[in-house]
Amino acid sequence: MSEEQNNKPVHERRIKSFVKRGGRMGTGQIKALQELAPKYVLPYSPQAPDWDAVFGRQAPRVLEIGFGMGDATAKIAATLPQFDFIGCEVHEAGVGALLQRIEEGQLTNLRIVQHDAVEVLATMIPKASLQGVHLFFPDPWHKKRHHKRRLVQPAFMAELVQYIQPGGYFHAATDWEPYAQQMLEVLSAEPALQNSALGFAPKPAYRPLTKFEARGLRLGHGVWDLVFQRR
């Protein structure tokens, strides 16, 4: 990394919260994007919107980084109606799928930003405004030479904690044990965070099991949750 790159804020470097993937979209997802996106998807902006106006109320807010197909996101929003949720995802199929779930569940406490969460944090989220941040099953970048691409790194966490209110939390989950161990090491070393457990945390009741996760557990695969509180 050049000296010029090293002096840039984290969100201006090449780290991304996503990996570009292909994928076909179903007719239901396409229809949801066409009909529901104007109501529930916020365009990326270089400045923060009035989030109270967006949701029509004042409430604790949680940001989710990369919600995939949105099944867990919708279930959590339905389970915790007293919270507002901002989901970041770049893939249209996932956005379309979550829009379908929003409509089916009549979820008024959930909005989507179809953009890289690292940049959304830097421009659209005021500092110390989030009650929580969720990061569920991020890309583990299995190969050692790719570990530098993992999202949970010291520099990123040092920036991320600035957007969480004191007393708020960061909750990550992964099914890749080496990444879980790295997360535990990075989060434990961040002075603004305190572990809510001795090591890994029990799965919080609000986080549902995904179909993929349930299948993995039946096969004896592990899942590791980490819940750290903002000091």
UniProtKB/TrEMBL annotation:
Alphabetic keyword roster: Methyltransferase, S-adenosyl-L-methionine, Transferase, tRNA processing
Binding residue positions for S-adenosyl-L-methionine: E64, E89, D116, D139
Record-linked Pfam families: Methyltransf_4 (PF02390)
Catalytic function, reaction form: guanosine(46) in tRNA + S-adenosyl-L-methionine = N(7)-methylguanosine(46) in tRNA + S-adenosyl-L-homocysteine
InterPro entries on file: SAM-dependent_MTases_sf, tRNA_(Gua-N-7)_MeTrfase_Trmb, tRNA_methyltr_TrmB_bact
GO terms for cellular component: tRNA methyltransferase complex
EC number: 2.1.1.33
Protein's UniProt keywords contain S-adenosyl-L-methionine: yes
Kinase in keyword set: no
A single MF term (Gene Ontology): tRNA (guanine(46)-N7)-methyltransferase activity
Pathway, per record: tRNA modification; N(7)-methylguanine-tRNA biosynthesis
Enzyme class label: transferase
Residues where substrate binds: K143, D175, T210, K211, F212, E213
NCBIfam families, per database record: tRNA (guanosine(46)-N7)-methyltransferase TrmB
Family according to the record: Belongs to the class I-like SAM-binding methyltransferase superfamily. TrmB family.
Name of the protein in question: tRNA (guanine-N(7)-)-methyltransferase
Species of the source: Inhella proteolytica
Source taxonomy: Bacteria, Pseudomonadati, Pseudomonadota, Betaproteobacteria, Burkholderiales
